[in-house]
User: Fold these one by one.
Assistant:
Number 1:
Amino acid sequence: MSSHRFTVGQTVYLRPARYDRTATPAGSYRITRLLPEESGDLQYRIKSVRDAHERVANESQLDRGQPA
């Protein structure tokens, strides 16, 4: 079992999946909860720093800080 790369309270940058049909916007999010693995990818509950929206994201969609 892998351990989470990010911690609660950390700010991360979300890169939505290429064919994401939910129209999740890329941007900065704060980790609010660590979730279990699903389909081989650890998950996180994240909250946008720009608005009050919360969502679930896979670890593979997250990066530390802003994109280059």
Note: Residues 11-64 form one domain.
Number 2:
Amino acid sequence: MANKEASVAELTEKFQSSTAVLLTEYRGLTVAQLKTLRKSIAADATFAVVKNTLTKIAANNAGISSFDDELAGPSAIAFVHGDPVAVAKSLRDFAKANPLLVIKSGYFDGNPLSADEVNKLADLESREVLLAKLAGAFKASLFGAAYLFNAPLAQAVRTVDALREKQEAGN
């Protein structure tokens, strides 16, 4: 009994400290395949095989009731502590290569996600790519501004130079 309470407390803490939670079913996957999946998301998430009844209690303790009907069959959860988009992409890509992994649902930013919404999350670009695009846009804007500020100055220099040459030619 105490062991179950400790497991529920640990799972509740994982639900509360995660930026996102993605629920999967892994029926038929081998231990080696699960190990490969864990490695692929290790930088941004932990992937844990869970007991459905204890997980339901822990999720409810954390204020998440959207998994109640989904917790059936062999379940595993990705507790995301990094980039949710990267984890969703990794899970989707792994599921394409290993159809026995089924993405059932998720929970992100205080909202339940359907399996389709998790796939849409996976379609987004990663945080790094978005930041790089933003930095590129800023750089282009700054370059454009610098060009605009320098253009009148360069034109003034050319005009003064032309006037000077004209004056020298007239003398």
Note: The mean pLDDT is 83.
Number 3:
Amino acid sequence: MFKELDPLLHSQVRLAIMSLLIGVKSAEFSWLLENISTTKGNLSFQIGKLKEAGYVDVDKSFRGNYPLTTCRITDKGTDAYQEYVAAIEEYFKQIKK
């Protein structure tokens, strides 16, 4: 009846990260931080969880003398996100019945 929800995406911060990344080619850590209500440490931790799962790629470089972290969603992450959204939509459809 109800599809199982991806526990990795069923976290507010991780879902926010994926929702932002799905619409852009890549995003800098600072931009993600500005758009998600969380701390630097928590954002970094949650990005790490998504990276471990293969949902995002993380590039670390420098801009001038400053570290620059850039994230982008992977094909696997896009698929997982779309499946998650479809599963949530099914939950809402059940309510309407």
Note: The mean pLDDT is 94.
Number 4:
Amino acid sequence: MKQLTLLVSVSLALSGCATLSKDAGLGDVQKTTQQHIIQEVAWPRTAAEQSEIAARVSELLQQPSMDADCAVQIALLNNKGLQAKFYELGVSEADLTQAGRLPNPKFDMRYAKSGGEFTIEQALTFNIFALITRPKMQEIERQHFEQTKQAVALEVLRLAHQTRLAYFNAVAATEQVRYSEQVKESADASAELARRMVQAGNWNKLERAREQGFYADAELEAAQVTSKQVSANEALSRLLGVSADQLKLEQRLPDLPDTITELEPQDAFEQRLDLQAMRLETETLAKQLGLTKTTRFINVLELGPSRVLDGSRSNDYKYGLDLSFELPLFDWGEARVARAEAIYMQAVNRTAELAINAQSEIREAYSRYRATYDITKHYRDEIVPLRKKILQENQLRYNGMLISPFELFADARTQVMSVNSYIESLREFWLAETALQMTLTGSGKDMK
């Protein structure tokens, strides 16, 4: 009894050390994300913290224009889906803390009376089996907590990259609206001139219809890109958690960088957070499998002091031990072990699949990144300057009355469309660059 009391006392003392932290592991998440992004990650839980974050977001929205980094910062502070994800840290840490504490002792009492005879049985039992398995359970929950922190960090980075994608789409759509209006104005002027020339008898109806067709196509294109702009702005506003009318975006996309990032795809996948989280999950399942095998026969063992009075109330109590455990008569635990083994092997194969897919995704993303860089550079250095030079030369010929205004209008439309194509190509490059960065930290299959 003294040994049992000492064992329980030590266990209670140790379980009292298992307490909740102040940040629920957010500090570790911040350290991980700071290796990939420069923006601050915050988890406001009190009313004061939430008010402070709201003021920060309002301040960022009041800036003259919002670049991609600013948009990412607003999303990380204000996206409610991410805030909800942070609470998984609290749940996981609570599970870890709970695993470090013993279940409460159980008090049983039986009272019976017949005439002057009494039967009183009292027992205070402790779950000794929980004490034996507690270190193993703590280790399992500790690894699960680490896995949760990895998953939350990956969610932060995914939101950051999704915001960059949405930002580049929105800015590119705004630029395309501006250039489509220029094409529309040029086509409108050409169609009006054609109408007047037909009235003067200098043109036939076929030539006028051709110019009217150019204008109709330009008007349709302007309507389509305007609709695309609205969708792009709304997609960005959802990620930032603000209304679209609060967005003050840059007027143009960032310039193409002078150099391209060199990368060794075969080595980069080892740093991916989703792969690290999957490996942690596999290790946790391995430990759970070991615990299942250990407890396959007996998983309930309760022991504690008891006393019994049998007879009159003046009789002395008899003291002893109360022991209860599960008898493996019908269930020998084979099904539990088989289930745990199947879940473990499932995780092993999923980890192997993720490693293979990670290498492929990085190779594909890097190839797209390099290709879009070369294409955009060709537009910038070759096609756009050439179209501009042609327009300038034809402007001189028009001034000398060597070509018609319709030829000049056509060249102007072609030059503007080449710029529009460059904008689209530049957008594709920044999307490819963002997708590549995402594949280096986690799965990029949803990055479009």
Note: The chain is about 70% helix and 10% strand.
